[in-house]
Structure formats: structure tokens, C-alpha cells
Specification:
Oligomer: single chain
Helix content: 40-55%
Strand content: 15-25%
Number of helices: 9
Structural class: alpha+beta
Shape: globular
Number of strands: 5
Strand order of the largest sheet: 1-2-3-5-4
Order of helices and strands: EEEEEHHHHHHHHH
């Protein structure tokens, strides 16, 4: 199973995007395609659904998320009675922090007003997810931006076919920029790394 895929978003609409990695285009269903910029190399966290069609062939559907926490929340929803992938994806259109707050407060009426929720689903979600939210690990709440961007940068360069020594050289040259980078700087870092590699042709392949 894929945990995430790093690639370039070549196409998106209101339902899905196409992410290219190693000359393969993955169709990935998303709750909000506007989170993913066209022609940008990005990491997409993946939930894989495997099912059989009427001919007993195994088929795969991919559901994508901007952050690991969004994927975790989606997987929690799938464990709730009466919630499948389509309903869960519709629920993910809502702001997670708002949903968490309403779930902890057991505010069924407010949940019912959100996308994907019915009274029954609101009751089931509140009952099942409330304790998970209270017990969620701190690493899901706070992530070191520098470490996250470094990981994303290395993964992206690997996906683009660059060698280990080329990547290490680029990371070394961009060390200060990576340390001072913000969450949304990853695309710029990737472009700078590629430029650094191209400008140092003496790096052995």
C-alpha cells in the first residue's frame, strides 16, 4: 500500500486530480482539489481502496490528502458505522478543526449542518471519534516544518530520478534555506534544488 506519492499534479477538477510519478499518472479522488496546485511537485498522502467488480477483478481507487492528519481523520471516518469512502470524502470537505470542536462538544445539531452529515452519521461519528481525538498523539498536532520540508524535498528529487549524491549536494547547498523555510515553501525548494544540481555538473552520476 502507498503511504504517499510525490509527483507533479498535471490535472484536477472538483472530484479528482492526476498525479504523475515516474511517468505514471495516478487518478486520485480528493475532497478539495484547490489545495493542490497544477504543475507543482507535491506530496499527496494516499488511502487505497481495493474492491472486486462483477467480473471478480480487483480494482483500486486512490483517495488523496494534503496532510497525514487528514488521511488519519479520513480513516477514522471509515471505521464509523454507515460511512463509506464517498460519504467520508464529502465529510472531509469541512474544516477538520471545526469538526473536532463540534465532536468534542457533542453538538449533533451543528454537525448535521455540515457536508456529508446526517443525524445518524453525526451520532455515530461523535460516539466513535470523540475518544480518538482526545487521545491523539502530539506528533499529529505539531510537525517541525524544517524536517517536513527536508523530507518532502528529498522524496521529490528521488521521484524525479536524481541520484543520492546529487540530492545530498543540493540539500547541502540549500541548508540555510531549508532551515528557514515555511510550510508552503516546498515547491520553491524543489525548483532551487534542481537548479543547484544543474549548475553543478561536476557532481558524478
Amino acid at each position: 500500500m502507498y503511504e504517499y506519492i510525490v509527483g507533479k499534479v498535471n490535472y484536477s477538477n472538483s472530484n479528482y486530480l492526476i498525479l504523475e510519478n515516474n511517468f505514471i499518472g495516478y487518478k486520485i479522488f480528493v475532497s478539495d482539489s484547490e489545495k493542490f496546485e497544477i504543475n507543482k511537485i507535491q506530496r499527496v498522502y494516499i488511502y487505497t481502496k481495493i474492491y472486486q467488480n462483477l467480473k471478480n477483478n480487483f480494482l483500486y481507487e486512490y483517495y488523496g490528502f494534503k496532510t497525514l492528519y487528514e488521511k488519519i481523520f479520513f480513516e477514522w471516518l471509515l471505521q464509523v458505522n454507515g460511512v463509506g469512502t464517498k460519504i467520508a470524502l464529502s465529510i472531509m470537505k469541512n474544516d477538520i478543526n471545526l469538526m473536532k470542536d463540534l465532536i468534542i462538544k457533542n453538538d449533533i445539531e451543528a454537525l448535521n449542518s455540515l457536508s456529508g452529515f446526517t443525524n445518524k452519521i453525526s451520532l455515530n461519528v461523535t460516539h466513535f471519534i470523540n475518544q480518538k481525538i482526545k487521545n491523539e498523539p502530539e506528533c499529529h498536532k505539531n510537525k517541525n516544518t524544517c524536517s517536513e520540508n527536508l523530507c518532502d524535498l528529498v522524496s521529490a528529487l528521488k521521484a524525479l530520478g536524481y541520484k543520492k549524491n546529487q540530492i545530498e549536494k543540493a540539500v547541502s547547498l540549500l541548508e540555510s534555506k531549508i532551515i528557514n523555510s515555511k510550510k508552503d515553501d516546498i515547491s520553491d525548494l524543489i525548483s532551487l534544488a534542481i537548479q543547484a544540481i544543474v549548475n553543478h555538473e561536476n557532481i558524478p552520476n
